[in-house]
Amino acid sequence: MSHAPTYRWPNGNAVAVSLSFDFDGETPFLWRTRDINRSVIGEMEQRRFGPRVGIYRILDVLKQWHIKATFFVPGLIAERYPEAVEAIVRDQHEIGLHGYVHERVDEIDDGTLDWTIAAAKQKLEDITGRPVCGYRSPSWEMTPAVFAALKRHGLTYDSSLMGYDHPYWMEGVPEVPVQWLLDDAIFYRYVGGGQANPPQRPSHVYRLWEEEYTGLRAYGGLFLLTMHPWISGRASRIAALERLIRRIRSHHDVWWATCQEVADYHSTHYVSQFHETASERLWGGPHG
């Protein structure tokens, strides 16, 4: 199989690198337990480490390395922790939508979906004072209805799907793809309650991520990390992230970009590509 790059990045760079953070704090727990009487506080406190401590450690690392990242924030987190969102804005990072209470889009009706996008967008824009352009679906699930809602509310890209390892089009919207291998939660997330496997060592996760970065260089792909401040804001994991940044910084043919910058580049340079629809992907249409 040819290792020729399948995607061309600005200025002849070999690979694009984006650091993204799903700043969701306690909202996934609140959504998951919305219909039950919550009598325990262990997971809530664990998750609140992100807005209290983890987010600020991450911002310090990004500032030290002069990196602009993308933070996807639920509306309720912006409501509860406006000072943290303001700190992200002060450091000139991008902020995108991540639902309102981290609600799964396949568990709500279209009216509720519309409300979550509109309310979260308004809340974030009230704090940031600038338009919000990007969306990342809670739990990385999507439906055709979500793409229609994004267009109605003026959002210009999505970052929830895994159809390629470089940007592509979905329903006429630029898709900035994620992948599970580059998500910290599958390696580090541990909330007790009989969970079988302990968190993996940061040194092991570093090796996995470094190997994927090396592989993506060969294919001209997008290395998009997804991290959570309540997970990756812990001390040893911060050190592993810094080690990875140092490794990538040793190469000079890397385009460091926010998710919005990647989406804007795709919109400008790959506008003639086929705008494949979500329904064609779902039902195996002409390009399915």
Describe the structure.
This protein is α/β, with parallel strands linked by helices and 288 residues long. The chain has a single domain, classed as TIM Barrel, CATH 3.20.20. 45% of the residues lie in helices and 12% in strands. It is built from twelve helices and nine strands. The strands form three sheets. Strands 1, 2, 3, 8 and 9 form a five-stranded parallel beta sheet that branches. A two-stranded parallel sheet has the order 4-5. Helix 6 links the parallel strand 4 and strand 5. Helix 5 packs across helix 6 and helix 8 runs parallel beside helix 10. The two termini are 22 Å apart.
List the helices and strands and how they pair.
Layout: E1 15-22, H1 27-32, H2 42-64, E2 70-73, H3 75-80, H4 82-90, E3 94-97, H5 110-128, E4 134-135, H6 144-152, E5 157-158, E6 168-170, E7 173-175, H7 185-188, H8 202-219, E8 222-227, H9 229-232, H10 235-249, E9 254-256, H11 259-269, H12 278-283
Parallel strand pairs: 1-2, 1-8, 1-9, 2-3, 4-5
Antiparallel strand pairs: 6-7
Helix pairs in contact: 5-6, 8-10
